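Repro:
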Amino acid sequence: MRKRRQYYKPYGGRRSGPIWLLSLLAVVLIFVLGFVVLLGIVLFGSRDQLSGQPQVMVILGCKVETWGPSILLQDRLDKALDYLEDHPDLTIVVAGGQGDDEHVSEAQCMYDYLTGHGVDGGQILLEDQSHNTWENLRYTRALLEEQGVEATDFVVVSNGFHLARVRMLWERAWDGETTLSTLAAPSSHLPSRLSMYIREPFALVKSFFFDR
């Protein structure tokens, strides 16, 4: 029997996968890295940052339930009340309109909660037309100008996950003309805290490109 002739085949290197699979993996890797970077920005911003001597406190709205402020909103209000114990003379703006599933505006709900805990209603201004963070800040500026309130130092109160985006949008709304401090309220409701820290990096990108 004749032996089958063996032909030499040079080594062509390790075969790579299909181009589409490599491209998909590259896209996934870029997405994951981008998310991690953005989450880092969100986490870095989720802390108290105080500077200057705030003259105006702005409390940003959140969901209102049938019984009153949601847990996240109550966290913001309690954080504000703690600060007001040592700074009782601030002008306060409560910012948030009324959603389709809310029986009162977020601003009114916050006003009721604060006055129910001893804050003088005369020092609270209600911004009750906004429906997102960008409108919160723009309409707050318009309200203060309308009321003749002149201030250069502000403190904004919101949950920690929210504050990196707040700082970015504040610079746009106020043209860098003010000193901004932030108070990071805790997020007592664990499911909400987890979902918000996942959501917020995407909201940061959205606001960077579209909230102008």
